[in-house]
């Protein structure tokens, strides 16, 4: 198999060097002409063995016919009987005995109107031949001419014998136009399949590559730069686009990471200055407020670094893992945290499903939603997991205050806060649900939120699975 793949790659490289064959339109043109050539060659080859066309007489058959004529000539000369009379008697005698052959004597001066139509046609086709030929007419094989010159007259013998073998199957097919059309389709099918494969294989590569980009995998694919010239150029442009997108995303993420790191230095100095002030002056309401704001800023920077790190590694570090191994520990941690606050997290169980994900990113996505639900729920948080047409649906429902309907789509934006239910005093940075939304989008999934009729918020995460 490895040698076959190598041979195909080398053959494709050689084709690519030829300007005409390296292009898509050149290959289509060549394949159509090759199909026509193969069909014509097959028809011409089949007609070469057609007994209904003029062809040479096999040597044994020719010798046998000549022996019959010589025997007849000897009888005519020995008994002094005209050839026409002797041939008529012999044909009548052989016809009575049902012999499979018949002789025709045609003198040079004799009229041709009385001869059978098939014989007249055969004579017109063989009038200029130096050697006897034969051809099939219906059920008789006509052979001749065999020229004879005697003291009385000159003329030609023609031999007709009953054709016993059946017409070859290939020739029967070519007798009717619809049969010829069927043969043409049969012969051209392999070449057309090859053409379809040649056209669709690069298209399938582009389809797979575009799906990977849609799922957040900004990785170039060298296979896109193979095949016909048009697809190679398009593949090269696609890889350049992916490289540019990757650089843009990486640069943006690096900028966020650098800013976050730079903010930590003055923040650390601020915390140290606050500690020194407490030691020298004692604790006060103003210093406590500084500590609170510094802690919140520290949390915000940490989440920014987490978001930047997960985004930059989300499309590079993926593995195939079961849903149970992926999220069971996250659910158990949420149940423990909710229990410490007097709340309860329940689950209907994790279905048997396999996912290809960045493990840290997928766990962080569910953990952020669960923490948000635990924070705002009154008593109950319910996790429901179901498989539906190639995706795994995770629904996290709480019995908290919910979110205004006009803000349901905005809660997944970075730093967005719902004033009716959330402010800075709650300690949230507004990045948790944004991390969840971007994580799911990188994996080709969806996330949405809706208010429950009985109160509370329901967040649904849709993950592609198998």
Automatic annotation (TrEMBL):
SUPFAM superfamilies, per the entry: ATPase domain of HSP90 chaperone/DNA topoisomerase II/histidine kinase (SSF55874), Homodimeric domain of signal transducing histidine kinase (SSF47384)
PANTHER family registered for this protein in UniProt: SENSOR HISTIDINE KINASE CPXA
Class of the enzyme per the UniProt entry, highest EC level: transferase
Topology in the lipid bilayer: Multi-pass membrane protein
HAMP domain location: 197-250
Record carries keyword Repressor: no
Annotated InterPro entries: CpxA, CpxA_peri, CpxA_peri_sf, HAMP_dom, HATPase_C_sf, HATPase_dom, His_kinase_dom, HisK_dim/P_dom
Record's keyword annotation contains Oxidoreductase: no
Chief location category: membrane
GO MF assignments: kinase activity
Catalysed reactions, semicolon-separated: ATP + protein L-histidine = ADP + protein N-phospho-L-histidine
Localisation: Cell membrane
Bilayer-crossing regions: 24-46
EC number(s) reported in the record: 2.7.13.3
Name the record gives this protein: histidine kinase
Organism, scientific name: Salinivibrio siamensis
Upper classification of the organism: Bacteria, Pseudomonadati, Pseudomonadota, Gammaproteobacteria, Vibrionales
Entry keyword set: ATP-binding, Cell membrane, Kinase, Membrane, Nucleotide-binding, Phosphoprotein, Transferase, Transmembrane, Transmembrane helix, Two-component regulatory system
């Amino acid at each position: 198999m490895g040698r076959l793949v190598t041979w195909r790659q080398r053959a494709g490289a050689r084709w690519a060097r030829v300007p005409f064959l390296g292009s898509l339109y050149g290959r289509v043109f060549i394949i159509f002409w090759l199909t026509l050539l193969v069909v014509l060659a097959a028809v011409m080859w089949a007609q070469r063995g057609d007994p209904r066309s003029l062809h040479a007489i096999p040597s044994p058959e020719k010798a046998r016919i000549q022996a019959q004529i010589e025997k007849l000539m000897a009888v005519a000369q020995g008994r002094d009987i005209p050839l026409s009379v002797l041939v008529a008697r012999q044909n009548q005698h052989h016809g009575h005995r049902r012999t499979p052959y018949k002789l025709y004597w045609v003198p040079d001066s004799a009229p041709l109107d009385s001869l059978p139509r098939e014989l007249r046609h055969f004579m017109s086709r063989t009038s200029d031949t130096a050697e006897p030929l034969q051809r099939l007419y219906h059920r008789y094989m006509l052979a001749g001419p065999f020229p004879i010159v005697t003291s009385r007259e000159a003329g030609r013998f023609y031999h007709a014998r009953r054709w016993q073998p059946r017409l070859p199957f290939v020739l029967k097919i070519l007798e009717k136009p619809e049969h010829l059309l069927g043969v043409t389709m049969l012969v051209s099918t392999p070449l057309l399949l090859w053409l379809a494969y040649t056209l669709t294989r690069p298209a399938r590569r582009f389809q797979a590559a575009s799906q990977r980009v849609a799922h957040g995998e900004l990785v170039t694919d060298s296979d896109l730069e193979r095949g016909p010239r048009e697809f190679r150029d398009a593949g090269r442009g696609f890889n350049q686009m992916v490289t540019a997108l990757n650089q843009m995303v990486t640069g943006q993420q690096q900028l966020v990471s650098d800013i976050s790191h730079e903010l930590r230095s003055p923040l650390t100095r601020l915390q140290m200055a606050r500690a020194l002030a407490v030691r020298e002056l004692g604790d006060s309401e103003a210093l406590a407020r500084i500590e609170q704001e510094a802690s919140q800023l520290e949390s915000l920077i940490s989440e920014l670094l987490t978001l930047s790190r997960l985004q930059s590694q989300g499309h590079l570090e993926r593995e195939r893992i079961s849903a149970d191994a992926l999220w069971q520990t996250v659910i158990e941690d949420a149940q423990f945290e909710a229990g410490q606050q007097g709340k309860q997290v329940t689950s209907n169980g994790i279905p048997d499903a396999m996912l290809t994900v960045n493990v840290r990113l997928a766990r962080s996505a569910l953990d952020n939603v669960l923490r948000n639900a635990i924070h705002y729920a009154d008593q109950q948080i319910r996790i429901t997991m179901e498989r539906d047409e190639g995706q795994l649906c995770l629904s996290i429902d709480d019995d908290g205050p919910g979110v205004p309907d006009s803000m349901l789509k905005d809660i997944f934006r970075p730093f967005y806060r719902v004033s009716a239910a959330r402010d800075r005093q709650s300690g949230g940075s507004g990045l948790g649900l944004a991390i969840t939304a971007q994580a799911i989008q990188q994996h080709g999934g969806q996330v949405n939120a809706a208010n429950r009729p009985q109160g509370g918020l329901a967040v649904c995460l849709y993950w592609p699975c198998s």
